[in-house]
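Continuing the series of single-chain predictions for the mutant panel. This is the parent chain; the variants come on the following pages.
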Amino acid sequence: MNIIEQTQNGVTYYACDGMDAAGGAVHGFSTRLGGVSEGMWASLNLGASRGDDPDHVRENYRRFFAAVGADGGRMAMTNQVHGGTVRCVTTADLRADPYDRVSYEADGLMTDLPGAALVIFSADCIPILFYDPARRVVAAVHAGWRGTAAGIASAAVERMKGVYGCDPADILAAVGPGIGPECFETHEDVPNAMTAALSTAVLRHIKIKENGKFAVDLKAINAMRLEQAGLDPAHIAVSSVCTACDEGRFWSHRKQGHNRGSMAAVIQLT
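Parent structure:
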């Protein structure tokens, strides 16, 4: 499977060809291209907490959802805290307005409700979408380095198994655009957290740089966790795109700090 750039009606996004081929669900990873926001939020800002004009953000959602083929009338959103919690979404969690407040804290969502659009946010952290076409279940997680160390990717698989009876062999996973290892330069705290969670198996995805710091490949580590959780490697697509390398196409928290918009990823059973 591959993650491919697409453009519909001026909105540029990324999608996994294997998920599209499976049918029964729509999904996409947004870029910052194709919206109506201005200034530091230009142009497809999907972050409702960034200080942008709410009418602009609502129009950006309308455009993004239309581009990927999703219905925006029944959204469930994350309240992200860089943890490992994956919430089971029910009808009580659904909303039509991105400015409706979320009462729970979760970096992951999952559901078997048709028409429920699961939305997660990113600006360097790794967005991961899941689809089980056999059991008709979808999930979405936000994996920063803390969430990666906490095992949120494998937690999503375990929750899909435990709640919905999914077989990991049937699950498709798309690891979307996020910061790449050369741009994700860290001190010892990040490698230490990864090795504590995953032992020395993770070291092949961590390199020591000449300046004594570390380059950590969060996408590869999450893909490894998915394989350990039982997914077929052929069912895992990993984007090669680095959000910190292309400020014209993506927002990067590492490069821009808080003066930015946010990308989003969505997946919805049809």
